[in-house]
DNA sequence: TGACATTAGTTTCATTTGCAACTAATTTTA
DNA sequence: TAAAATTAGTTGCAAATGAAACTAATGTCA
């Protein structure tokens, strides 16, 4: 009854803590968790709602479809996030009279105020997170991250609506 | 009715697609999604189950608590994953006679066979993912990733049981 | 034009998830 | 040693999630 002799002698071994998909998932989870805390505490909204607000703050008015594409959110998630934000008076909807299936979503003045409050918090959070990392290393990191993201999108296979 | 003039003139703007927490979350999601597909198709198990198997394959026998700590999983997730794996005959449990609150979980022979099959698939997947990235850039990437992960763990705040 | 296919968005349903409360065992402390 | 606190692990419950089905509108093609 001794402890922990690796049990699969013939199998190639794998150290989970060095396994890239695992690591990316963990760091991504921490990111969501930390930001979600900020959004939740300060504004009572969650990550999906924040993503919608962020896109609207950046682009003005968008259809739900656009939001989903830009923010990598499943359409049902967008639908529910928009509905919630509308219920809180943070976004408005205006039917597109040229295609009545869709409608344009935009921040209300209240929504814009929230956006204006969140953005500095989010940026400060990001700054604190990357503080002290050498700028050139960060550059490399971001470039590789882009490559991995693009390739991940393909490897994740379901090219189409991917929800995050 | 022109389109998309940025609506918050005074607010600092933020581009979500360049926002690091967002990007990390997206790439992490792709990683999970892609791997989950592999595990699901080939072995009918999910990510949590895979993580348990991976740790047991690496370390031999572990308590659920250890698994949670090593694999960054909430204890309820571990509990359910272990229960599921046990139901499928892939892991066994043995009570620790020196502390009867906990028990040691270990792969059964069937579990070891699955592990031996999954590991090469997982490693091949990882290899395909990072293919073509310059080794020195990958080194930098992994180092920064470690820093971000450690700091993210703190920023995520809930130091204690973090579930992923 | 009219049938068929596609698209935007919502809703239903089953699954997954995490929190909180719980049980049972062990450790601490007074 | 007895009460209080802590710990391992499970379960109840409510919220979040995604797949699939659905509605309504538009596009395609004969």
UniProtKB/TrEMBL annotation, chains A, B:
InterPro entries attached to this UniProt entry: HTH_MarR-typ, Metal_resp_HTH_trans_reg, WH-like_DNA-bd_sf, WH_DNA-bd_sf
Q: Does the keyword DNA-binding apply?
A: yes
SUPFAM superfamilies in UniProt? Winged helix' DNA-binding domain (SSF46785)
The source's superkingdom equals Bacteria
Keyword annotations for this protein, in alphabetical order, are: DNA-binding, Transcription, Transcription regulation
What protein name applies here?
DNA-binding transcriptional regulator, MarR family
Q: Give all residue intervals belonging to the HTH marR-type domain.
A: 10-150
Recall the taxonomic lineage recorded for the source organism. Bacteria, Pseudomonadati, Pseudomonadota, Alphaproteobacteria, Hyphomicrobiales
What is a single Pfam family found in this protein's UniProt entry? MarR_2
Gene Ontology terms for molecular function: DNA binding; DNA-binding transcription factor activity
PROSITE patterns of this UniProt entry? HTH_MARR_2
């Amino acid at each position: 009854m001794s402890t922990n002799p690796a049990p699969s002698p013939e199998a190639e071994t794998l150290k989970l803590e060095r396994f890239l998909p695992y690591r990316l998932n963990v760091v991504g989870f921490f990111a969501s968790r930390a930001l979600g805390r900020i959004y939740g505490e300060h504004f009572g909204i969650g990550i999906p709602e924040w993503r919608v607000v962020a896109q609207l703050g950046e682009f003005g008015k968008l259809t739900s479809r656009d939001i989903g594409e830009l923010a990598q959110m499943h359409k049902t998630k967008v639908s529910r996030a928009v509905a919630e934000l509308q219920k809180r008076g943070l976004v408005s909807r205006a039917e597109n009279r040229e295609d009545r299936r869709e409608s344009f979503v935009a921040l209300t003045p209240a929504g814009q105020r929230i956006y204006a409050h969140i953005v500095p918090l989010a940026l400060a959070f990001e700054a604190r997170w990357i503080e002290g990392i050498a700028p050139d290393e960060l550059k490399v990191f971001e470039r590789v991250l882009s490559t991995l993201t693009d390739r991940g999108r393909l490897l994740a296979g379901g090219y189409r609506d991917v929800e995050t």
